[in-house]
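Let us practice reading a record.
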Amino acid sequence: MDRVLTDAPVQELRALRFSSALTILFTAGAATVAIVSDSETMTLEAMSGLVDVIVSLLAIFVVRKIHEPANRRYHFGYAKYEPLMVGMEGVLITAVCVSAIVYALKDLAHRDPIDNPHLVIAYALAGFLVSVVFDLWMKRVGARTASPLVLAEAELWIIEGWLSLGVFVAFLISAILTRSPSADYSAYVDPILCIVLSLILLKKPFEILQESFGDLVDANPYAETANAVEESARESVQRYHLKALEWVRVRKAGRRVFVLVSFLHHPTTSLEELEQVRGAVSEEMTRLNPDADVCVLFRGG
């Protein structure tokens, strides 16, 4: 178990590098298919792949940086690099989806049949199979290393897999239509599918931006729910015979949680006793959340 915990950053970095390399290969493949087939959907696939490449390369940099200790310039370490990177991903995906919808609407107005639909079908089927298998592997690594970044990458892969399956089914129908009396309608499959996929993808950046914005502005991540940190602080008042709990401040930056607790103590309590309470409270809260950075304050009341 100790070895797994010790090797976790190494396994996390290895998984992210592997994900980055595979993303680059898929993006190059999607771009090639988009050029050959003149497909708006494959252009969207290539553009979203380019975003994933940028994000995956940033993830490698971030995962190495967030493990570095605080220093004179960054007193609280580099934890906010994580939500900042995630926020950038949300902005880039939004820009890609909006531009794809605009170009697809132009294609609907001026019908432009795609070339080589069978190439798109083969790429989409291969993309679906690889994405599902790689997602399962990334989830295993993410669970073993307790890495939010790896688990987030795994979610991106499964989303990519289901979108590839949608492309496969749609273009298979399009290929069938070209051999039927309804062949003229096959030209509309590509832009309509591009718009539908773009609208589906737009949900993800809104959720991403909402979460990352909360981290960046130091919102309380547990504002709407009861949480173990605040419960532990309340219990400490009776356990260590303190006068009262003054307040609890919690903020989150990526995987790191910063907790600031202030207690009121009795005037007769000695400094040695307060120091012992500080250590015990910090240890308990760190046990509840190993990624927590706990600071305990006391004020005479």
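A brief commentary: The chain has a mean pLDDT of 81.
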